[in-house]
Amino acid sequence: MLNFVPMSGNNVSHETGLPIKPVVGIRRLKEPMIAPLKTRIFTVANQKGGVGKTTTAVNLAAALSMGGLKVLVIDLDPQGNASTAFGIDRIINEGVYEVLINDLPMANVVQKVANFPHLEIIAANSDLAGAEIQLVPTVAREFRLQSALQTFLLAKQNAGQRFDYVFIDCPPSLGLLTINALTAADEVLVPIQCEYYSLEGLSLLIETLTEVQKRLNPKIILSTIVLTMFDSRTRLANDVAENVKKHFPQQLINIPIPRAVRVSEAPSYGQTVMTYDASSPGAIAYMSVAREIANRGGMPINLRNETA
Ligand SMILES: Nc1ncnc2c1ncn2[C@@H]1O[C@H](COP(=O)(O)OP(=O)(O)OP(=O)(O)O)[C@@H](O)[C@H]1O
Ligand SMILES: [Mg+2]
Question: Is 181 helix (H, G, I), strand (E, B) or coil?
Fold first, then answer.
């Protein structure tokens, strides 16, 4: 397996060589977001590559955290893009691989995301690429993430530090890592880029989800669809959006995320767009989507046992 050797100091991204800009203060929203009655565990999945899974997972997590909620991100993609987006070096840290393969408790590998008071991450590392194959002969191979996550969440809850949201970022495949994520979650969030083959990909994902529902996790539902990299000027994007709305009126969040340069720039600086440029159109859209997700499944924040 390839091991990347860091070539530069701590304040330079190993991915891009660009300097990691320090985050200057995280805005706490004046109007906090509504906390859910119980922890909502989302798997962000779409086997199609490059549709905005990671971007959506990290920005929603950041936005909900800025809304005062306690959020955990699990980077289940060997590419480690979610870890990088939070400025975390996925190469040297122990992470989700050790949890899945070596039974290391999540509590041992969870890290705080710098500057966010309520945001934590279980990072990916390059070993994770081998996990897909290493998992095959293991006992209860589809349940390894679920059991580690439940143990971790319960311990946190008992310590008065309940997480409100968990986002699991999946690789672009429907292999054992994604199956582990679907088995561990209550809800699936599917980012859809409005292109010609988008809906075909969605039917395959739904078939997999139905199988997981039948055999591994009866409570999993496709609860949320987010349109990503949306270009309202193209007819195709509008047509696909209409189609999604027609077939998934309950699931679709009717706030498309625009294609926006600041969104794509942010990860090079080890940041989400929520901190990189909070007033840019992409950040505003992700913030609105986060609020809509919170509104759909929550209760007033002051009713929550706020001891964290
Ligand atoms: N709204 C947006 N505007 C502009 N660029 C975007 C936007 N959303 C995502 N991108 C860019 O598109 C690329 C793919 O996004 P992302 O990595 O989130 O997709 P993904 O589905 O997680 O990919 P993979 O399947 O490889 O994990 C990235 O370079 C990202 O910065
Ligand atoms: Mg990704």
Answer: helix
How far away, in angstroms, is 28 Cα from ligand 2 center? 27
pTM recorded for the entire structure:
0.90
Give all domains of the chain, ordered by start, each with its CATH number: 40-301 (3.40.50.300)
Residue 67 confidence (pLDDT) above 60: yes
pLDDT of residue 18: 59
For the ranges 3-12, 17-26, 53-62, 170-179, the lowest mean pLDDT is seen at 3-12
Counting atoms of ligand 1 from 1, which one is nearest the CA of 191?
21
Q: Whose CA is nearest to atom 28 of ligand 1?
A: 264
Phi and psi at residue 6, to the nearest 5°: -60, 135
What's the 79 CA to ligand 2 centre distance in angstroms?
Answer: 7
Euclidean distance between CA atoms 85 and 63, whole angstroms: 14
